[in-house]
Design a protein that fits this description.
The structure is a single chain. This protein has a five-stranded mixed beta barrel with strand order 1-2-3-5-4. It is an alpha+beta fold. Strand 6 and strand 7 form a beta hairpin. The longest helix has 18 residues. Helix 3 runs antiparallel to helix 8, helix 4 packs antiparallel against helix 5 and helix 5 runs parallel beside helix 7.
Length: about 240
């Protein structure tokens, strides 16, 4: 049965000389695997360009009896993200987030709220004047969508952040997994960060990387392990 899907490409893995397998998150079916052309031909090159990480694509998906992998046909861009394709920093950010989403959305069910968050985020990455803090704003927003965002209501200056319970405390928790006051303050600041105001948050590269490590550790504690992302080292050197 053929079905039109709107999807966000995440990862392409070579399957044979003629085909690769695309992992993507779709509005209609959640996480899907699709057979796409590989090789050096014109059609394979066109599909590779259309399915670069965090594109937004519409296609016809052909189901095959007894097989989970569908065949992609008639792909077309919903919107061309020219700045993501042209700017190395944006492109690297997109690759990092796509790798992260491949883990977070593994076998993910369709979720209109999540899909809308992702499409709005992709458009923001393409349009923002500077992508320096984008990955931090994205990850905090993703934590909200996943239902694991920290409880910042009780924050007061000088408090610690309990990484396990996701709350601020006056004294260290017994389990010993927490952020000191200076880092805890950053957590509260991140709760107010949006794509519109993120450029006003002044972080050094070291501070940005420390904050990213804390967020990835938080996701690992509450959702799924994000400790072995291959693109992380490159992102650190650029953003």
């Amino acid at each position: 049965m053929d079905r039109t899907l709107t999807l966000i490409p995440l990862r392409v893995v070579k399957y044979s000389d003629r085909h690769s397998i695309l992992t993507a998150y779709s509005r209609e079916r959640g996480t899907v695997a699709m057979l796409v052309p590989a090789g050096t031909g014109r059609e394979a090159a066109r599909v590779r360009a259309l399915t670069s990480p965090l594109s937004i694509v519409e296609c016809v998906a052909k189901s095959r009896p007894g097989r989970d992998i569908m065949i992609m046909t008639a792909p077309r861009p919903v919107k061309v993200m020219n700045r993501i394709l042209a700017d190395p920093d944006r492109r690297m950010t997109a690759q990092f987030l796509a790798e992260l989403l491949t883990v977070v959305l593994h076998e993910g069910a369709p979720d209109e709220v999540a899909f809308r968050f992702l499409t709005e985020s992709i458009e923001a990455l393409d349009s923002t004047p500077s992508p320096a803090n984008f990955h931090l704003a994205f990850l905090y927003g993703l934590a909200r969508v996943a239902g694991i965002a920290p409880d910042v209501e009780g924050y007061r200056p000088g408090m610690l952040f309990d990484m396990v319970d996701g709350v601020f405390r006056l004294t260290p928790p017994l389990h010993g997994i927490f952020l000191e006051a200076d880092s805890a303050r950053v957590v509260e600041r991140l709760s107010r960060m949006t794509y519109a105001n993120m450029a006003r948050y002044r972080f050094t590269r070291a501070q940005r990387n420390d904050t990213l490590d804390a967020i990835l550790n938080y996701f690992t504690l509450h959702y799924t392990s994000l400790r072995n992302l291959h693109s992380l080292a490159v992102l650190r050197s650029l953003i």
